[in-house]
Design goal:
Elements (H helix, E strand, L loop, with lengths): L15 E3 L3 E5 L4 E10 L2 E6 L8 E12 L2 E18 L7 E9 L2 H23 L1
Antiparallel strand pairs: 1-3, 2-3, 2-5, 3-4, 4-7, 5-6, 6-7
C-alpha cells in the first residue's frame, strides 16, 4: 500500500532558509550579481535577469552576514556550481528563477553555509516562541 502523504514531506538532505543573501555568479560569458531566494548547504535558488542553460558551470561567491552575541559575523564563501533548473518568472518578462547545485565546495565553506542556515533557523524558532 502506498502512503500518499509521503509526497508532501521534505525530501531534501539539507535544511534550507528563505532569504536574500548576496550572490555573484560567473560563467564563461557572463557575470551576474543577485540575491538568493533560498539557500542550503548543497545549493541556492535565486532570481537571474538572463536565461542560463541548465548544466552551465558557474563560479559562485556568497556573502553571509549575521549578528551573533552582539557581534556581526561576515563570511565569504566561494565555490563552483551547476544550474539544475531554470523557470521563467511569471511576474516578469525578463527574469528567471534559477536553481544552482554546489558541485565543488570545500568542506569549510559547506560548513559555513550549514552553520549560517542552522543559526537562522534557530533564530526564527526563537522569534516564534517569544
Amino acid at each position: 500500500m502506498v502512503d500518499h502523504g509521503e509526497s508532501s514531506k521534505e525530501r531534501r538532505r539539507h535544511p534550507r532558509i528563505k532569504g536574500n543573501i548576496p550572490v555573484k555568479i560567473c560563467g564563461e560569458e557572463f557575470d551576474a550579481v543577485t540575491e538568493t531566494k533560498n539557500l542550503s548547504r548543497s545549493g541556492a535558488f535565486c532570481r537571474v535577469n538572463k536565461y542560463i542553460d541548465p548544466m552551465t558551470k558557474l563560479k559562485i561567491q556568497l556573502l553571509l552576514s549575521y549578528k551573533r552575541s552582539g557581534k556581526t559575523i561576515t563570511k565569504k564563501v566561494s565555490c563552483e556550481g551547476v544550474i539544475v533548473r531554470v523557470e521563467q518568472r511569471p511576474d516578469e518578462q525578463k527574469g528567471y528563477n534559477t536553481a544552482i547545485y554546489f558541485n565543488d565546495i570545500s568542506e569549510k565553506d559547506a560548513n559555513a553555509i550549514a552553520d549560517y542556515v542552522h543559526f537562522m533557523i534557530n533564530k526564527e524558532d526563537d522569534q516564534v516562541e517569544e
